[in-house]
Amino acid sequence: MDPLIKLDEVDQQILDILIDNTRIPFTDIAKELLISPGTVHVRVKKMEDAGVIKGSSLNLDYQQLGYSFIAYVGIFLGETQKTKDVINELKAIPNVTVAHITTGKFNIFCKVRAKDTSHAKDIIFSIDDIEGISRTESMISLEESINDKKRLMHFIFNNL
């Protein structure tokens, strides 16, 4: 974020609404906040141009799609020079939905979505087979307890 960009309470209210529903029409945001649709448009454009808002996303209900099993896989590399190659191989596995290059115990840490335990096993074994990976450690997610995009945003705004 450009340190020169000034965001105010109206910007925060717009972001609050967009976090809940990225597809909401600007006219509905304007009605809710008692401002003009043009103001909403200008403010969203300002935040997009500043890089505060990057695109929009769609949240899928993976449970409804039959992919409710989540595993986290910590990856140990034989050689750190293989990091980019391994990341490229992970990109080829559609069930690897997130991958981070990390410090600490693992070189790479991934989130994997699967249909069930057996499916997750197959995915994890395919990860294990990637050249450059020496071993993996897997953890099963029992429940996602926190997934709140607003709390951090509110904290940031309160500390501006």
Question: What is this entry, summarized?
Answer:
This protein has 160 residues and is of the alpha+beta class. The protein has 6 helices and 4 strands, in the order H-H-H-E-H-E-E-H-E-H. The two termini are 12 Å apart.
Task: Write up this protein.
- By secondary structure, the protein is α+β, with helices and mostly antiparallel strands.
- The protein has 2 domains: 50 residues, Arc Repressor Mutant, subunit A (Orthogonal Bundle); 72 residues, 2-Layer Sandwich (Alpha-Beta Plaits), CATH 3.30.70.
- Helices cover 40% and strands 19% of the residues.
- Strands 2-3-1-4 form a 4-stranded antiparallel β-sheet, with helices on one face.
- Strand 2 and strand 3 form a beta hairpin.
- Helix 1 packs antiparallel against helix 6 and helix 2 crosses helix 3.
- The radius of gyration is 20 Å and the shape is elongated.
